[in-house]
């Protein structure tokens, strides 16, 4: 499945980027910026901006990547309004 915003442990904030459980769910479109590379990954030491346009929010959300959990396929993010 695609990427989506999700909560963790019942807390509404912060939001996390998670993967849809179903392979048919396309998720939320994302745009990656500030990264130009010929490799298929972003090292933890580099900055990467991720923007998701979400229908139920009146404004776009800018996300800053925090930590990644390979066990749950979740990426911790800090959100802000643009």
UniProtKB/TrEMBL annotation:
Gene3D superfamilies: 2.80.10.50. Pfam families: Kunitz_legume. SUPFAM superfamilies: STI-like. It comes from the Eukaryota. GO terms for molecular function: endopeptidase inhibitor activity. PANTHER family: KUNITZ TRYPSIN INHIBITOR 2, TRYPSIN INHIBITOR. This is Uncharacterized protein. The lineage of its organism: Eukaryota, Viridiplantae, Streptophyta, Embryophyta, Tracheophyta.
């Amino acid at each position: 499945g695609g990427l989506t915003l999700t909560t963790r442990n019942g807390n509404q904030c912060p939001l996390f980027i998670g993967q849809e459980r179903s392979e048919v769910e396309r998720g939320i479109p994302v745009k990656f910026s500030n990264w130009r590379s010929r490799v298929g990954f972003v090292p933890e030491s580099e900055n990467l901006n991720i923007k998701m346009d979400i229908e139920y929010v009146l404004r776009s959300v800018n996300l800053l990547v925090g930590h990644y959990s390979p066990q749950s396929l979740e990426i911790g993010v800090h959100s802000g309004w643009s």
